[in-house]
Write a structure and sequence with these properties.
With about 170 residues, the protein is of the alpha/beta class. It contains 6 helices and 5 strands. It has a single domain, classed as Rossmann fold. Helix content is about 45%, strand content about 20%. The chain has a 5-stranded parallel sheet with strand order 2-3-1-4-5, sandwiched between helices. Strand 2, helix 2 and strand 3 form a beta-alpha-beta unit.
Length: about 170
């Protein structure tokens, strides 16, 4: 049986870093970051581009789930609304597949500190802070496992995800 890991969380919470660690620690794994399906300049959010990114994500996830060499498929994206998660799950084949639906969360202070480091490195712009902070509260109502990343390294968060797999 395959496992699909859906890892959501607001920008700066540590999704991509944690998923890269999971990819290395899980056997026969592949990782897709939803941002890779929508990396454009200028970045434009329209009905057309939102539809396109969902189609891209679902197509790639289906390809990975169909491929016999992958046992673990890891996907991360902001996924701040239950409808986004439901749309993805409703448009991929989950035959012989277990889903781990996880939201990474932290407090506002931790998030601002992490985003500040990214801004200093030129990875993100200042406007990311407000957008990310505003989404924090949305994760509490999602039908997901919540993992608080405050005070934890990405390695510790990945270990927590893997430890839950054993139980």
């Amino acid at each position: 049986m395959k496992t699909l890991y859906l890892v959501g969380g607001t920008m700066g919470v540590g999704k991509s870093t944690v998923c890269q660690i999971l990819k290395r620690r899980l056997p026969d794994s592949v990782f897709l970051d939803g941002d890779w399906c929508w990396d454009a300049h200028p970045f434009q959010v329209t009905e057309e581009t939102k539809s396109m990114v969902m189609e891209n994500i679902c197509f790639l996830l289906n390809q990975f789930l169909r491929c016999t060499v992958y046992e673990n498929v890891i996907f991360c994206w902001v996924m701040h609304e239950q409808g986004i998660i439901d749309d993805i799950l409703g448009n991929i084949s989950l035959k012989n597949c277990k889903v781990r639906n996880i939201s990474l969360v932290c407090d506002e202070e931790t998030l601002k500190a992490r985003l500040g480091k990214d801004i200093d490195k030129g990875i993100r712009t200042e406007d990311a802070v407000l957008r990310s902070v505003l989404r924090l509260s949305l994760y509490g109502v999602l039908e997901t496992e919540k993992i608080d990343t405050k005070g934890k390294t990405a390695e510790a968060v990945a270990k927590e995800i893997l430890a839950a797999e054993i139980h």
